[in-house]
């Protein structure tokens, strides 16, 4: 039995609903978020061949937006820079279409949940005057600092990097942020209910149903192979279709 609340929290579901309402309809599969993104959020999408951080910095600087990632330039699949209520998503345009699709969704998720939503919450609570604080033009008042909402809002410039390879160790806070963005991104591209709808997976062996689900995620929803593999295993676990004890021994 699929438990929606175990997959995405109320904030995530609210943001997904807002996104498609702003666009006007839910896109068909496989979803190309580029058009929807342009209409639903104050975000500009920019593609570079073999994207490196320095190229994103130069693009922003050429438009009068001085910004630096404060690290050595390197190749990344995508990155997000947000300030002043606007977002700029940079993606490697030479990546395969499925990789670009997920990169755009992942950075869109970061913009919505880590920047846009907290900013809107602060704006609703404190009014337009809070924008001066959020954009780094004045320090917060004592009352503003005491607010639980204010403590979650990024001040000044917010950035995020989607690395070329998922290597290295992440602390629990970073892992939690990335996991939340991945769940939101996957729900934008391949909502669990849509993925599982109409499938009869219980009658097959675990390896067969996992392979069936992975192929469906790739061919119907346009996810990259590694992402589809991980997502298919999670969906089967969440739906109570994990391998039996005997199958577990065989998988090993």
Task: Write a concise synopsis of the structure shown.
This protein is of the alpha+beta class and 252 residues long. It has 12 helices and 4 strands.
Protein architecture, described:
The protein is globular, with a radius of gyration of 20 Å. It has 12 helices and 4 strands. β2 (76-83) and β3 (86-92) form a beta hairpin. Helix content is 52%, strand content 11%. With 252 residues, the protein is α+β, with helices and mostly antiparallel strands. It folds into 2 domains: 4-170, no CATH class; 190-252. A 4-stranded mixed β-sheet has the order 1-3-2-4, sandwiched between helices.
Largest sheet report? 4 strands, mixed
Distance between the termini: 26 Å
- The global form is globular
Strand content: 5-15%
Mean residue pLDDT: 82
In which range does the helix fraction lie?
40-55%
Radius of gyration, in angstroms, nearest whole number: 20 Å
- Broad structural category: alpha+beta
In oligomeric terms, what are we looking at?
single chain
Number of strands: 4
The number of helical segments is 12
Count of structural domains:
2
Name the helix and strand elements from N-terminus to C-terminus, one letter apiece.
Answer: HHHEHEEHHHEHHHHH
Instruction: Pick out the low-confidence regions.
Output: 167-175
Strand order within the widest beta sheet: 1-3-2-4
């Amino acid at each position: 039995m699929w438990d929606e609340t175990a997959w995405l929290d109320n904030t995530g579901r609210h943001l997904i609903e807002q996104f498609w309402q702003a666009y006007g309809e839910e896109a068909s599969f496989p979803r190309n978020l580029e058009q929807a993104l342009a209409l639903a959020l104050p975000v500009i999408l920019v593609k570079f061949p073999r994207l490196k951080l320095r190229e994103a910095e130069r693009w922003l600087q050429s438009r009068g937006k001085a910004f630096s990632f404060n690290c050595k330039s390197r190749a990344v699949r995508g990155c997000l820079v947000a300030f002043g209520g606007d977002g700029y998503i940079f993606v490697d345009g030479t990546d395969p279409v499925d990789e670009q699709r997920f990169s755009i969704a992942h950075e869109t998720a970061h913009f919505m949940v880590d920047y846009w939503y907290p900013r809107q919450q602060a704006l609703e609570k404190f009014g337009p005057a809070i924008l001066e604080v959020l954009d780094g033009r004045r320090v917060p008042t004592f009352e503003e600092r005491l607010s639980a909402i204010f403590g979650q809002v990024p001040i000044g410039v917010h950035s995020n990097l989607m690395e070329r390879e998922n290597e290295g160790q992440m602390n629990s806070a970073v892992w939690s942020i990335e996991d939340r963005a991945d769940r939101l991104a996957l729900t934008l591209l391949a909502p669990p209910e849509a993925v599982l709808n109409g499938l009869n997976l219980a009658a097959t062996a675990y390896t067969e149903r996992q392979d069936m689900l992975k192929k469906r995620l790739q061919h119907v929803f346009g996810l990259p192979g590694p992402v589809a593999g991980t997502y298919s295993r999670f969906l089967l676990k969440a739906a109570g279709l994990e391998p039996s004890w005997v199958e577990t021994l065989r998988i090993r």
